[in-house]
Structures are given as structure tokens and as C-alpha cells.
Amino acid sequence: MKQFRTLVLAATLTTAVSGCSVFDWMVYKIDIPQGNFIEQVQVDKLRVGMTPEQVEFVLGRPVLRDSFASDTWYYVYQFKNGRTNELTRKELVVNFTDGKVSTLKGDYEVGDDFYTPLDAGRP
Predict the structure, then answer these.
(1) What are the chain's domains?
(2) Is the model's pLDDT at 11 over the cut of 80?
(3) SS (H, E, C) the chain
(4) How many angstroms separate the CA atoms of 22 and 54, rounded?
(5) Which of 15, 34, 84, 111 makes a 20 to 30 Å CA pair with 48?
């Protein structure tokens, strides 16, 4: 009878420890950043009429350039917190018309000076 009780107790403990995530808080999980990390300060530097080279200088290379419409660039950033599994995703889409920036869409605010071209005020 004593062996049976020990066996049942061992089976119960084994099932509880392996089947559930009781000790999950003790396991270290890394943070996983993916894509282009862009700050609002960088987006504020963008202007209508910038060339693709100028945009690449400010923001870096895009994660995706649309194969069918090469005038659309996607900057995507995703961050997964290892401890909480919280997922943060930010996106910025830059559209070009005739080789110049025309519009911005996404999770960032368009800067106050965005609609002022870089060469405004130059003779």
C-alpha cells in the first residue's frame, strides 16, 4: 500500500510539473526585435519630394519593396517581449510618385514640415 501511494504521488507530481507551466516564470526568454526600428524623430525628417536615396539615408533600407509596385516601401518593426509575450508592431509605408516621396501612411505621425519640400526657399 505504501509503494502504491508513493507511485501515485510521483505520477501526480510528474504530471503537474511537466504538463503545466508552473515554473515558466523561472525560465529566461529573450526579447525578439525584428525589422526596422524607427523613431518619430526620423519620420519628422522626411519631406515631400525626397528621393529614394534620401529616404534610405534617413530611415535605412526598407524591410520590403513591393515587387509589383516599386514605388512603395514598407518599414515594419515587431517586438516580442520575452517575459510577457506582449507583441508590439509598428509600420510605416512610404509611397513615391515619379521617384519622389508623395505620401506616408502608418503608425507614425506625419511631421509638421512634411509638406514643405527640402528645396523650398532656395533660388
Answers:
(1) 23-123 (3.30.1450.10)
(2) no
(3) CHHHHHHHHHHHHHHHHHHCCCCHHHCCCCCEEEECCCCHHHHHCCCCCCCHHHHHHHHCCCCEECCCCCCEEEEEEEEECCCCCCEEEEEEEEEEECCEEEEEEECCCCCCCCCCCCCCCCC
(4) 52
(5) 34
Q: Is the pTM higher than 0.70?
A: yes
75 close to 91: Cβ distance less than 8 angstroms: yes
111 grid coordinates? 511631421
42-81 per-position pLDDT tens digit: 999 999 999 999 999 999 999 988 788 889 999 999 999 9
Evaluate whether 87 touches 76 at the Cβ level (below 8 Å): no
